[in-house]
Structure prediction request, 362 residues.
Amino acid sequence: MTREEIVMVLFDLFRRAGYDAVSIADISAATGLGKSSLYHHFPGGKPDMAGAVADFASGLMRVKVFDMLTGDGALPQKLRDMAAFVSEMYGGGGAPCLISSMMISPTAGPKAIDTVRSIMTEWINALGQALRAQGLPADEAKQRATAALVEIQGGLVVARATGDITIFETALKSAIARLHV
Amino acid sequence: MTREEIVMVLFDLFRRAGYDAVSIADISAATGLGKSSLYHHFPGGKPDMAGAVADFASGLMRVKVFDMLTGDGALPQKLRDMAAFVSEMYGGGGAPCLISSMMISPTAGPKAIDTVRSIMTEWINALGQALRAQGLPADEAKQRATAALVEIQGGLVVARATGDITIFETALKSAIARLHV
DNA sequence: GTCTATATAATGATAGAC
DNA sequence: GTCTATCATTATATAGAC
Prediction:
């Protein structure tokens, strides 16, 4: 089992139950690896795992979303790609956001917390750049990018709280629609 | 120290760090009470505390928001009152939502989880009823109420992740503005 | 109703063999 | 790189005095 495969399991565990609720024994059971194997891959223990998951999520978003948004291409296609990836990442509205789950866990260490929180800022910046590329003024681009993230994240929270995942898909569609120039 | 005072401390601890990250020792330190005193007030232990906090939050929202929204009064004033209370409750965008923090903690017990999650549904319903009282069709009232909660909750998440609490106040104002009939 | 002292289980983490 | 066995610590929870 490669380290990245372990990290993907950790990603799912941490975002679903929160960093503190997941024990090394849980991770051992979920991966099928013994505790010592886990400490071999992550010498720093649980905080090390938190950092690896945060880096993984950050890298994934950069490759799949940020680079795509700031690269060449038409805005409508960029927005479609972002919506498709985001919907899959959040399980159509049923899977929690890692940022939200890890933000409240100081025991995960400041590095991991800073990394996950920075994902949100980078996301807004990348989206803002895609809008500026369409000729939108910088301030309006930032406002609209922020509003989109607000709608996406809020849709996820409300969908999961109410148990109605259609709320997420509706919010995501609405957020995308408002982004078209 | 009365039980409700303890619950208010628990409310703050649980929403800020999450249920699992808060130990009985933490609670003892925050309240100044010994462990045995805490178990005297909450014989069921930590899950009992989670249930009490969930009930407290549910009752607080009912008294301060739901009853107000579904009672007599003009819509603009209702919305102003809701905005003022919500902004204070969420620390102007700096304090996490208990619902979000407790939703991901299965160890808190199903009762507490169900209670906090139901707050979101009741909130949407109360807001929808206030809109229907202004003559809005039921389906549109529900859609707009849901959209408002999406914007409020999303504003809180994005504000806390980015560290820019003005995002929350902007989202809250926007949500309220969209609710006026 | 609060305290001190303690029981018991689970936690994160390590040692050393293979 | 993974395992078994184990350590030290912390967790939840309880007993019993006051």
Summary: Chain B has a mean pLDDT of 98. Chain B touches chain A through 40 residues (CB under 8 Å). The first helix of chain B runs from residue 3 to 17.
